[in-house]
Amino acid sequence: MTDEKFEVVPIAHVIGGRREPTDDHWGGTETIIRIDDPRFSEDSVKGLEQFSHVEVVFRFHLADQSDLHFGARSARDNPEWPEVGIFGHRNMRRVNWLGVSRARLLRVDGLNLHVAELDAVDGTPVFDIKPWFAEFGPRGDVEQAPWSTEMLRDYF
């Protein structure tokens, strides 16, 4: 284990959309990612409009930081689903409180990125934005646990 630490600062914030995080029904949610770090100009997003999706790294800023579970537990505390460890979940209870999400890029308006299906709420700090390249998608067959398919049935 190393003691390596580094500081990250938001480059953008989520504007609009949902005000509270929820477990489901993110489909159709539209919001703006406003790049508000003064180091960036409109040149920073040049060419981004050619992509249909962006990958967004953000912080779960509303999460209860005392609610961290390193061991195994059932997703959403549903006893019908198996207990899995922290790295078998994609929830907000992360060691560094980081989320990664793919969103549909609707349009670029200056430093405002209009997106859909970003599962982050109003005010969420954004640390990085990358265009989604199909070549970075999974290679080979994709497998996942049956409980995750059931859990995410109504997510989007």
Automatic annotation (TrEMBL):
Keyword Metal-binding set for record: no
Establish whether keyword Ribosomal protein is in the entry: no
User: Matching PROSITE patterns, A to Z?
Assistant: TSAA_2 (PS51668)
Q: Which domain of life is it from?
A: Bacteria
For this protein, the record's InterPro entries field holds:
TrmO-like_N, YaeB-like, YaeB-like_sf, YaeB_N_sf
GO process terms (BP): methylation
Q: Which UniProt keywords apply?
A: Methyltransferase, S-adenosyl-L-methionine, Transferase
Task: Write one Gene Ontology MF term.
Answer: methyltransferase activity
- List, for all copies, the residue spans of the domain called TsaA-like: 8-141
Q: Which CDD domains match?
A: UPF0066
The text of the family note is: Belongs to the tRNA methyltransferase O family.
User: Which PANTHER family does this chain map to?
Assistant: TRNA (ADENINE(37)-N6)-METHYLTRANSFERASE
User: Which protein, by its recorded name, is this?
Assistant: tRNA (N6-threonylcarbamoyladenosine(37)-N6)-methyltransferase TrmO
